[in-house]
Amino acid sequence: MQFDNATDKTLSYKLKTFLLTNRNGLNIEILNYGGIISKILIPDRDGNFKDIVLGFNSPEAYFGEHPYFGALIGRFANRIADGKFVLDNQTYTLVKNNGSNHLHGGTIGFDKVFWDAESFENENESGVVLKYVANDMEEGYPGNLTVCVTYSLTQDNTLKVAYHATTDKKTPINLTQHSYFNLSGDFSSKILDHELTLNADEFLELNENQIPTGKYLEVANSPFDFRTPKPIGKDIDKNNTQLAIGKGYDHCWVLKKDNKLAKIAEVYHPKSGRVLEVLTSEPGVQLYTANFLDNTISAKTGGTYGARSGFCLETQHYPDSPNQTHFPTTLLGPGHTFTSETWFRFSTKNN
């Protein structure tokens, strides 16, 4: 199902909204602007449907400044130190849009462009295929990069996100999906009561600029241990140097290195019974607990979005990988294809 919006003459004539549905009544709204997921409507254990992603009620509102609500991120997700990297003895300079860092692809990253979009539907799923070509030196990156992202909603309540990219010059690439979840559907409440399981033994140590030092830290005996279910808020305010740097969780957990799709996380909201499972082929996931939301953005359900009113599980390669050669490579060259897949599976369970 597709419909056009045309209230803002400068941009809205380009804006398209796609609604993915399944036989269980799930509704997921996708914009061709930024590949943004603007709504995920799912039931609680009693069958009551609520939207569980932060954002705006009006699609046009995403044209304004916001903290990447629901967006596709590229050409490089997360931070690159000092806004530069060296590739084949050439230094590439990027915009510094996060203090001294380059963040989420720059001033006009993939979250702020219109994607070509085409919907599809069959008996197993409904979806939309998004395509974008990032030009050579766009935001400072080399190579004409052709990106295809497919969103598909299955009949078993799984939102699949499949990434595919090719380039005509060697270039770094790191793509992710930046939805903020609050499984309660009440955006005036914090996500500290959500119980998180994260299948990772290590996470990346950060310096004071939120750039990886290159050191892998064990989660054992630390606030970063989610190997067994634990409320997100249990240890978030502990006296810990890494937590102080991120003002909470804003770190990359080290998952695996075999590039096979596997379950890496589960989040359960005890009050509603809603469950989110995350599967990915990526080697890392950034858990961000919306520490920097400051009540300046109006919420869908009234009020404003405050700190820790949502959480992100951004499946990706590691931050600053172009500058840290011992990290899994993010380089893509001509004749090769970048592929990645992440699934978000929704369900409910009783207490």
Outline the structure in words.
This protein has 351 residues and is mainly β. The protein has one domain (2-348): Beta-galactosidase, Chain A, domain 5. The protein has one helix at residues 241-246, and strands at 2-4, 16-21, 27-31, 37-43, 49-51, 71-73, 79-80, 84-87, 90-93, 102-103, 116-121, 125-134, 145-154, 158-167, 171-172, 176-178, 195-198, 202-206, 212-218, 230-231, 250-254, 262-268, 274-280, 284-288, 312-316, 331-332, 338-348. The strands form seven sheets. A nine-stranded antiparallel beta sheet has the order 11-12-13-14-27-23-22-17-20, with no helix packed on it. A five-stranded antiparallel beta sheet has the order 1-2-3-4-5, with no helix packed on it. Strands 19-18-21-24-25 form a five-stranded antiparallel beta sheet. The longest helix has 6 residues, at 241-246.
Strand content: 35-45%
Oligomer: single chain
Low-confidence stretches: 1-7
Strand order of the largest sheet: 11-12-13-14-27-23-22-17-20
Category by helix and strand content:
mainly beta
Quickly count the helices: 1
Q: What is the residue-averaged pLDDT? A: 95
Question: How is the CATH topology named?
Answer: Beta-galactosidase, Chain A, domain 5
- Radius of gyration based on Cα positions: 19 Å
SSE series: EEEEEEEEEEEEEEEEEEEEHEEEEEEE
Q: Quick one: overall form?
A: globular
Number of strands: 27
CATH architecture: Distorted Sandwich
In whole angstroms, how far apart are the ends?
36 Å
Just give the CATH class: Mainly Beta
Give the biggest beta sheet. Answer: 9 strands, antiparallel
